[in-house]
What we know:
calcium; metal ion binding; Muramoyl-pentapeptide Carboxypeptidase, domain 1; two-stranded parallel ribbon; 2 domains; zymogen; PGBD-like_sf; 315 residues
Amino acid sequence: xDAMFFSTFSYLLLLTSLFHAASAHSDxxxxxPFEFLQHLQGCHKGNHTxxxxxxxxxxxxxxxxxxxxxxxxxxxxxxDDFDDLLEFAVKTYQLNYHLNVTGTLDPQTTSxxxxxxxxxxxxxxxxxxxxxxxxxxxLRGIGSFHTVSHYAFLEGSPRWPASxxxxxxxxxxxxxxxxxxxxARAFATWTSVTLFTxxxxxxxxIANIQIGFARGxxxxxxxxxxxxxxxxxxxAFPPTSGLFHYDADEKWAVDPPSGxxxxxxETVALHEIGHxxxxxxxxxxxxxxxxxxxxxxxxxxxxxxxxxxxALYNF
Length: 315
Ligand SMILES: *[C@@H]1O[C@H](CO)[C@@H](O)[C@H](O)[C@H]1NC(C)=O
Ligand SMILES: *[C@@H]1O[C@H](CO)[C@@H](O)[C@H](O)[C@H]1NC(C)=O
Ligand SMILES: *[C@@H]1O[C@H](CO)[C@@H](O)[C@H](O)[C@H]1NC(C)=O
Ligand SMILES: *[C@@H]1O[C@H](CO)[C@@H](O)[C@H](O)[C@H]1NC(C)=O
Ligand SMILES: [Zn+2]
Ligand SMILES: [Zn+2]
């Protein structure tokens, strides 16, 4: 059964990818949108080289950099200068991902940044750290930083109200049939560790949670655009918006074997449902709420995810 779904599903999505490639991305269809980072290896403060502007866009998108914050000059917001603010952002990224905090784009940092990942920002407003719940920390005293591995909440700790622990979900038109069972299993997994229950409704317009496949700029604002194959894989919005989108340009499969080039529909659903319930990214690599995932990887909930959801809802 699963094998059949796997092949039908891959076939369907391959068809849509090919169609898209023919219409839009004929040159660079297989190149990751994060590929530019490869050429920045070794860069540090003071460098001026093509691609640094893209690094700034990347770090802005994921919450590490904001030239518009009061008190900062925006002179270098859109150029290729590796300035102080960019160095600070790189250090914050390195701290969150347990890398050496050097401010230099060493090979470990670029390879971490190039991994396919969730489109939801790691940190919001530049002052909070991933993995510190809603408290937040800043970078003062980097040298003696005591690192605690931890789940996080989304900005402002949004939650579903206790009157709404039974949620309905529906699929947007065009969702491949084979994706519905793995998504249902992901909901069941969250039910097993929370007070939430989820039920499918045919009419997605009345559902609390709306799930679908979308590509490129799909109506969630330009900075939430998907980016073709690789790069960002999916995203979901905090309570109580209920929006969860897969990037239709990725290769998706039901139960892909290890080594497969396809991403696991159910594993990515588990992660995005975490956002729908109010969890942010965790700095624990084994947690489902870790920001990146390799193709052909199957993951379940980790103790860190369960502690996070229990803390958010006081279960
Ligand atoms: C970065 O700057 C250093 C000097 O500080 C220089 O040696 C290096 O070639 C520069 N790298 C790039 C990619 O421009
Ligand atoms: C910064 O501000 C400018 C002008 O106010 C705006 O066009 C730009 O989108 C802002 N950038 C971010 C990342 O908020
Ligand atoms: C940190 O730096 C040390 C010493 O240079 C190196 O051995 C280690 O591999 C680095 N770790 C990471 C995660 O980059
Ligand atoms: C960022 O912080 C400001 C005030 O510090 C707040 O008004 C704003 O809502 C925050 N942004 C988000 C996305 O939470
Ligand atoms: Zn995420
Ligand atoms: Zn979207």
